[in-house]
Design a protein that fits this description.
alpha/beta, Rossmann fold, 2 domains, 6-stranded parallel β-sheet, two-stranded antiparallel ribbon, 8 strands
């Protein structure tokens, strides 16, 4: 075979490989080096807009059409971050004809709720039609949290079962080691409200939001539930500040 023919075969083969790789959705690496794609696909097809497909999480579901305006029994449960939050939820419930019960378990973590029947007990006691779970603030700096504590999240979700719920992420005061990632990996974007990027005025401990910030936090959660969540229910803003204390149960830190 003539040298020129060999060179031509090599060039055609290389062009075929580069063209195929340009249209492939995956990535090719040699060792630690990623091979960059050529612009052949763009040249042939023009600029395209990527389509992002929402990942499927723990179960198949069909989103509700519109907002459920029926009366709800809301169970607000979690750690001490809901202490001021619950007062604003009280106003939302009274404005929109819902009932509520709240459970504050001081210093609680996914490990506590995930290794006890506390959540199942209050679900049985209160018979909620909707659950708002605020949990994770005491786990911002746990090492290897995704590996170690994901089983606890699974048990929490097993206790909730088919009840519509929203998991409200912790109001970070510093970057976390994976608690927010762990939650969203298990419940999905439509059942998770990320609180970490909001701005808060906090008490002297530097962690717990003051009432005015906790109220704005609840306002943001209500907007998310009505407009972006998997389970939209009626949560119009309160037209006034209502009287009466929230129906609350206080649990002291768990002594193992």
């Amino acid at each position: 075979m003539k040298p020129t023919s060999k060179i031509l075969i090599i060039l055609v083969t290389a062009l075929t490989i580069l063209t195929s790789y340009s249209f492939w959705n995956g990535k090719l690496q040699v060792g630690d080096v990623e091979i960059k794609k050529s612009g052949i696909q763009t040249f042939v097809m023009g600029d395209t807009i990527p389509i992002f497909i929402q990942p499927v999480y723990t179960s198949e579901y069909k989103p509700r059409v519109g907002i459920d305006s029926s009366k709800q029994k809301i169970l607000l449960i979690g750690d001490s971050m809901l202490e001021q939050f619950r007062w604003r939820l009280r106003d939302y419930c009274k404005e929109n004809g819902h009932e509520m019960a709240s459970v504050i378990w001081y210093s609680s973590q996914t490990e506590w709720y995930g290794t006890t029947d506390t959540l199942a007990y209050f679900i049985k006691k209160e018979q909620p039609t909707y659950i708002i779970l605020i949990l994770g603030a005491n786990e911002l700096f746990v090492r290897d949290i995704i590996k170690i504590r994901t089983p606890y999240v699974h048990h929490i979700l097993e206790q909730i079962g088919d009840i519509p719920f929203i998991w409200v992420g912790p109001p970070n005061w510093k970057d976390d080691t994976g608690i927010n990632e762990m939650i969203i990996n298990n419940v999905g974007y439509k059942r998770y409200f990320p609180s970490k990027d909001l701005k808060y005025k906090r008490y002297a401990d530097g962690a717990h939001p003051k009432p005015e910030s906790a109220f704005m936090w609840m306002d943001s959660v209500a907007t998310f539930i009505m407009n972006k969540s998997r389970y939209p229910i009626l949560l119009n803003p309160p037209t006034k500040k209502y009287s009466g204390s929230p129906n609350s149960t206080i649990l002291q830190p768990w002594k193992k």
